[in-house]
Amino acid sequence: MELSRRSALIAAAAAPLAGMAARAVAAEAAGALPAAPGATLAPRPPMGWNSWNSFAGTITEAQALETAAIMRDRLLPLGYDVFTVDIQWYEPEASSYTYNAHPVPALDANGRLIPAPNRFPSSKGGKGFAPLAAKVHAMGMKFGIHVMRGIARLAVEQNLPILGTPYRARDIADTQSICPWNPDMYGVDMRKPGAQEYYDSLFRLYASWGVDFVKMDDMSRPYDAHAPEIEAAARAIARCGRPIVLSLSPGETPVPRGSDVRRHAQMWRISDDFWDEWPQLLAQFTRLENWSPFAGPGSWPDADMLPLGRIALGERTSRFTPDEQQTLMTLWSIARSPLIMGGDLRGIDDATLALLTNREVLAVNQHSTANRPHFLADNTRVWSARAEGSEDRYLALFNTGEAPLEVAVPLRELGLSRAAVRDLWQGRELGVSEGRVSANLRPHACALYRLKAG
Fold first, then answer.
1. Could you list the mean pLDDT of each consecutive 10-residue stretch along the chain, which spans 454 residues?
2. Which of 2, 242, 288, 352 has a 20 to 30 A CA-CA distance from 191?
3. 374-453 maps to which CATH number?
4. Do you find a cis peptide bond into 250, omega within 30 degrees of 0?
5. Distance between CA atoms of 152 and 173, rounded to whole angstroms?
6. What is the DSSP string of 39-51?
7. Alpha galactosidase C-terminal domain: from which residue to which, for each copy (predicted)?
8. Which class is domain 10-366?
9. pTM for this structure?
């Protein structure tokens, strides 16, 4: 079964930046980035759970509530607080990772998608997601939804009215702007009267439901073609009366648009859908290195969900080896990508739970600064960061090759000559290192240390 919504561009992603992209990163790195407009909305990388990796588009209200209760008990104490229902919650017949060619989604009278009542029975009577969101909020968590760019094709076919305007769906739809992998929507022509009002009505509806987080798909690529709708969504959020974090998907968002995208969204995908294959994980190293100048409060390049534990409608457990799973968590943490678990929390195994709940590793993701890659040798990847509120350093060492390797970093790279070393995955002190820090690593394995000067 093909699980990715789009083919991963692994080979292209693994190539170094060139030309305009390299100049853009260099320009941003030359001085401090201005504060992102959404800094108070997402001061740290969001953490949570998303239904896509484990349920595709099929999740029901009962499954959502069961999963949310497990998340509350097992992950919320560690900071995972965003619970998100992914794609096609409006599709009564959603059944897998493929899409019905001619869907008949649930709509309101103004052409806005609403939860399919056969899957979300509490939505009946025009309540939408408000009852489910209220239950998630009562568990102490935030409620998120996935939406597609544009307006439902069924709304255009029925030419439904745009709320509060004299215009109708056909007046604003761009029927030439379609998603290549999903048949649900047409784009919106933002030059047309009624177009912004349509997006305003969408986010007012989401605000009335109690939505805190919106993952908006078919947005980041092609970026320039979709930029008017990205800006429209950001304007609509600013007007909706509720703070909502905007996450753009899929990727690959172009690095030269980093300064623009961080003005409108708090998260944006840097790749196509990420699944449990080593070549895709290897490609994320280069992407996160390229995007590192843009990470900061309210501005989080997103390497995608964590396909750990049981995934793919229960068909398998993650194909990543234990070493690769630790590498995944270490890379996302030291690069400060959002940590969004994708695996099925029902029956989560102890090893997966331990990966997700190591407090010292999560502190790297949530409480570090000056995160940066170092380029020292072939088949190695090295990142460092400062521990927030401390002179301590974090150091991540990776062996991305196919043979065992000693990965060593001169302490002068970190402005140190001597340091006490703590292994964060093992939770133990390793003693004092002078001159350099090194680790003998198996293929695809890593080490994550906290260094105390002196």
1. 39 40 43 84 98 98 98 98 98 94 96 98 98 98 98 98 98 97 97 98 98 98 97 98 97 95 98 98 98 97 98 97 98 98 97 98 98 95 97 98 97 96 98 97 98 91
2. 242
3. 2.60.40.1180
4. yes
5. 9
6. TTT-SS--EEEES
7. 378-451
8. alpha beta
9. 0.93
